[in-house]
């Protein structure tokens, strides 16, 4: 992990490097995530794209904030980071809640975004379109003696596979603790509930929509609507993949991203073999 100084605040980032010879892709994680969730994608795109993935407010090693966790704050943070990078417009990638932030940045700051990639999130995050737009994590465990114990405590909350959450678990002098504050996570999720259709339709750059066929957060009908409502949107579905497509189908996802960027003239170097 490195840091980028953004308006006087140090933002932790995963930076795959690559220098000026490759285009920059800023990748925004979803709720409960951190920049490091994109390590595999960054490796698979090595030599083609420089992936910069921040720990967004309330997540990972990000600094505490006093101005809340609403939509405007996340959008302002992402726009400020892109400006601070000084690379010109970037490819903006977002997963889940990070995808909402990504298409909101593209709509409100079009000069900062050359292309938009949205992973498994739609323009509407509310019932009935999305059966479960939030996950109740109030009272979840914040620490345990071992990582295995922490995993078991989260499993008891009805999560069959806590591995995604445990990416935000770190060792300390008393055992293992979560970098996440569960009350903050509730506020983050509530800030994402709503109808953001105007923002989805509000940009004109090339867009790629990535959908896990087994995901409940982006039903097929809603994905159909997204493509129909926004010209210039391409869509790729991933059989057998759930909401975390970058984990469930990493090779296929990297291939789809590479093809999209190549087709739109956004790769400045010859393609090389990605990781398998």
TrEMBL record:
Q: Where is the AB hydrolase-1 domain?
A: 26-255
Q: Name one GO molecular function term.
A: hydrolase activity
- In its UniProt entry, what is this protein called? Alpha/beta fold hydrolase
Could you confirm whether the keyword Hydrolase appears in this record?
A: yes
Answer whether the UniProt record assigns the keyword Hydrolase to this protein.
yes
Q: Which domain of life is it from?
A: Bacteria
* This protein's UniProt keywords: Hydrolase
């Amino acid at each position: 992990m490195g840091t980028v100084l953004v308006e006087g605040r140090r933002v932790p980032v995963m930076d795959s490097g690559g220098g000026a010879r490759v285009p920059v892709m800023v990748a925004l994680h979803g709720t409960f995530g951190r920049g490091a969730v994109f390590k595999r994608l960054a490796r698979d795109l090595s030599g083609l794209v420089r992936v910069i993935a921040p720990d967004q407010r309330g997540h990972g090693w990000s600094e505490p904030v006093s101005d809340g966790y609403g939509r405007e704050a996340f959008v302002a943070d992402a726009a400020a980071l892109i400006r601070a990078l000084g690379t010109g417009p970037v490819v903006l990638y977002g997963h889940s809640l990070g995808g909402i932030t990504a298409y909101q940045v593209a709509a409100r700051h079009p000069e900062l975004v050359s292309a938009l990639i949205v992973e498994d999130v739609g323009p509407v995050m509310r019932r009935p379109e999305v059966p479960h737009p939030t996950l109740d994590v109030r009272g979840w465990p914040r620490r345990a003696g071992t990582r295995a114990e922490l995993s078991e405590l989260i499993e008891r909350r009805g999560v069959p596979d806590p591995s995604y959450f445990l990416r935000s678990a770190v060792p300390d002098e008393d055992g293992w603790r979560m970098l996440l504050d569960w009350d903050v996570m509730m506020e983050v999720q509530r800030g994402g509930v709503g109808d953001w259709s105007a923002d989805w339709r509000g940009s004109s750059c090339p867009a790629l929509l990535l959908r896990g066929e087994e995901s409940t957060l982006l039903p097929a009908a809603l994905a159909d609507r997204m493509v129909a409502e926004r010209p210039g949107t391409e869509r790729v579905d991933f059989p057998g993949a759930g909401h975390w497509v970058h984990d469930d189908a990493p090779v296929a996802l990297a291939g789809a991203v590479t093809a999209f960027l190549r087709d739109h003239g956004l790769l400045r170097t010859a393609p090389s073999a990605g990781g398998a």
